[in-house]
Amino acid sequence: MGRVSQAQAQDNRRRVVETASRLFREQGSHVSVADLMKASGLTHGGFYKQFASKEALIDEATTHAFGELAQHHKDGLDQYAGQRDAAQRALIDTYLSAEHRDSAADGCPAAALATDMARDGGESEARRVYTQGVRDFAQHLATDDQDGITRLCTMLGALVLARATNGTPLSDEILTAAREALTAGN
Prior knowledge:
Blueprint (H helix, E strand, L loop, with lengths): L5 H22 L5 H8 L6 H4 L3 H26 L4 H12 L2 H5 L6 H4 L1 H7 L4 H17 L6 H17 L4 H15 L3
């Protein structure tokens, strides 16, 4: 098999990063390189042509996931131009929905990667990106009446608990209670 073009190599790398971002959010960063490459439609041997290590891929996949989150927030604000309260209400409703609970692969990286980042304990690029992403998300959630960190902790905690209790009535109760607490008076 011949060498791939530079454009194809870039496309392959992008595909691996996007796939890793989804799989890490869905299953955690313990996903094997072989499984990740298979899910990307590429061979295991091609991994080290693209990445120095799995940790380097985790760094890029985390950056990609938080980039998607930032774009989602921007799109939400654009959709509700000039109506920040309506944009935040829509964000809370979407974040604390059964659909978001049930689709971790496409969901919030702050919730999905929290356990991996807590176990990392180091000074990795992924942890730096994660920390900045959480800070930015909290700032995005701040209102005149509520600080963003409290709102984020409520949303993230509710989502994690709802995922952990999914399939039981408690899961939906958690989402509803958190949504009501965050939108009371709005």
